[in-house]
């Protein structure tokens, strides 16, 4: 996902989750060279459905990699990339030319399972800095990279926790999903506050198979919200998402039947806290690729609206 600037250790407030989507925060504003606020073209090529996974990679997909004139074709560049995330197969851990700050080379292991087993790994601060230099972001303060990696990893973990919550509700079918959603977000037996833990031993846990970044493409929902913000600015005024990702998740039921579900993630910057602390929001939901995915989204939204509108919490008390 995009690069971020924040304190190396997220604040306590940053770890609080607000159903249905966690409220994610950092403690500083992005630097001028931070790519997360810069538009870029999206990946046009269709990535292979399956490929071998290297020793872990970060759930982030950069835009198209420019082809130097000395190289024969763009395909030769893509042949050096991991088809699961369009990142180089071997991220350099070498100190960059002119680098004055020593950056750690240790890589943090995520809680996100890979499709073929194991867990995804995040890039080390040195790898991230080298990647930013390769993309032309030479004005990033070297002493900020560790903080950027920390927030980058934190937001990925928050996105995965939201996806796991969707899977808790609907991996067992629509009937089970409605039983979870009909009592609203507050009344649901499941809760995003549980985080990425998968506690059903009888079912295979969801796995992140592959992902892609699409920062230059607004989702239909984001487009609609931008239209409403122009028509009703007082009620819907908001900035467009600064990033978008598509994550492809392996979902299995109790019978062992598995399928792939695409999730879309919009990343928003919210109004800062009174203390000046920036706020980030994640809008995570299954893409409307099938009728059942549309029903899942309708159930979760409609169940929460009905529960609150009908005074469900009062009735239950």
Automatic annotation (TrEMBL):
<feature type="compositionally biased region" description="Low complexity">
    <location>
        <begin position="8"/>
        <end position="20"/>
    </location>
</feature>
<keyword id="KW-0408">Iron</keyword>
<keyword id="KW-0999">Mitochondrion inner membrane</keyword>
<keyword id="KW-0496">Mitochondrion</keyword>
<comment type="similarity">
    <text>Belongs to the cytochrome c-type heme lyase family.</text>
</comment>
<protein>
    <recommendedName>
        <fullName>Holocytochrome c-type synthase</fullName>
        <ecNumber>4.4.1.17</ecNumber>
    </recommendedName>
</protein>
<dbReference type="GO" id="GO:0005743">
    <property type="term" value="C:mitochondrial inner membrane"/>
</dbReference>
<dbReference type="Pfam" id="PF01265">
    <property type="entry name" value="Cyto_heme_lyase"/>
</dbReference>
<keyword id="KW-0479">Metal-binding</keyword>
<keyword id="KW-0349">Heme</keyword>
<dbReference type="InterPro" id="IPR000511">
    <property type="entry name" value="Holocyt_c/c1_synthase"/>
</dbReference>
<comment type="function">
    <text>Lyase that catalyzes the covalent linking of the heme group to the cytochrome C apoprotein to produce the mature functional cytochrome.</text>
</comment>
<keyword id="KW-0472">Membrane</keyword>
<keyword id="KW-0456">Lyase</keyword>
<dbReference type="GO" id="GO:0004408">
    <property type="term" value="F:holocytochrome-c synthase activity"/>
</dbReference>
<feature type="region of interest" description="Disordered">
    <location>
        <begin position="1"/>
        <end position="76"/>
    </location>
</feature>
<dbReference type="GO" id="GO:0046872">
    <property type="term" value="F:metal ion binding"/>
</dbReference>
């Amino acid at each position: 996902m995009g690069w971020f600037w924040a304190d190396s250790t997220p604040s306590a407030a940053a770890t609080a989750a607000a159903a249905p989507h966690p409220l994610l925060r950092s403690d500083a504003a992005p630097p001028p060279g931070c790519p997360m606020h810069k538009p870029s073209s999206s990946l046009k090529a269709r990535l292979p459905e399956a490929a071998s996974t290297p020793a872990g990679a970060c759930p982030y997909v950069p835009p198209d990699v420019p082809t130097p004139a000395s190289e024969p074709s763009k395909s030769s560049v893509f042949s050096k990339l991991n088809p699961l995330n369009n990142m180089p197969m071997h991220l350099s851990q070498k100190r960059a030319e002119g680098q004055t700050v020593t950056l750690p080379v240790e890589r943090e292991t995520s809680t996100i399972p890979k499709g073929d087993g194991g867990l995804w790994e995040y890039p080390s601060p040195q790898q991230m800095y080298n990647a930013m230099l390769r993309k032309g972001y030479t004005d990033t303060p070297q002493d900020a990279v560790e903080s950027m990696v920390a927030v980058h990893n934190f937001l990925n973990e928050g996105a995965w926790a939201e996806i796991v919550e969707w899977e808790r509700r609907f991996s067992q079918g629509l009937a089970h999903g409605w039983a979870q959603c009909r009592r609203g977000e507050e009344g649901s037996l499941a809760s995003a506050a549980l985080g990425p833990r998968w506690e059903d031993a009888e079912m295979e846990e969801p796995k992140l198979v592959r992902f892609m970044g699409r920062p230059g493409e607004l989702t239909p929902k984001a487009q609609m919200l931008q239209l409403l913000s122009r028509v009703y600015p007082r009620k819907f005024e908001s900035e467009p998402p600064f990033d978008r990702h598509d994550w492809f998740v392996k979902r299995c039921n109790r019978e062992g039947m598995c399928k792939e579900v695409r999730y879309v993630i919009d990343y928003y910057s919210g109004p800062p806290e009174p203390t000046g602390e920036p706020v980030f929001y994640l809008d995570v939901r299954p893409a409307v690729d099938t009728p059942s995915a549309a029903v899942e989204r309708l159930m979760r939204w409609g169940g929460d609206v009905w529960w609150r509108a009908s005074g469900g919490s009062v009735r239950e008390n």
